Amino acid sequence: MAQYVLWLFLIIDYYIWFTYMFKYAMIYKTKGTCSTSIDVELKDGVIDSVKFTGGCNGNLQGISALVKGMKPEEAISRLKGIRCGFKPTSCPDQLAHALEEMIAQ
User: Fold this and answer.
1) Does the CA dihedral 69-71-72-78 come out positive or negative?
2) Cβ distance 27 to 38 under 8 Å?
3) SS3 sequence, 14-53?
4) Cβ–Cβ contacts within 10 Å for residue 67, how many?
5) Helix 57-67 crosses helix 91-104 at what angle (to 10 degrees)?
6) Is it the case that residue 18 has pLDDT exceeding 80?
7) Chain-wide mean pLDDT for the chain?
8) Fewest CB within 10 A of the end CB: N or C in the chain?
9) Stretch 23-52: mean pLDDT, rounded?
10) Higher pLDDT, 3 or 86
11) Residue 101: pLDDT band by 50, 70, 90 thresholds?
12) Mapping DSSP to helix (H, G, I), strand (E, B) and coil, where does residue 54 land?
């Protein structure tokens, strides 16, 4: 029985290591913004790249450059809740939602 428990812990430990040590990518479909999707890649537990499809090209390139190398939790705390005009969300807010979804998995 102890061997099975040890193997289970090793498998869980490997899964956690594998998740953070290698790239994890997601294409997030945005809701309520001019951009239609966000392609996000995490590597070693930090944001490796962000690419928006649609939206304000210059501004979104700037956001992508600023969050590169940042921990997802830090980016979420900075971006979540930002609104675009009278919309209840924005492209930065949608990026925060995408990152939340990624780290929840």
Assistant:
1) negative
2) yes
3) HHHHHHHHCCEEEEEECCCCCEEEEEEEEECCEEEEEEEE
4) 24
5) 40
6) no
7) 89
8) N
9) 94
10) 86
11) very high
12) strand
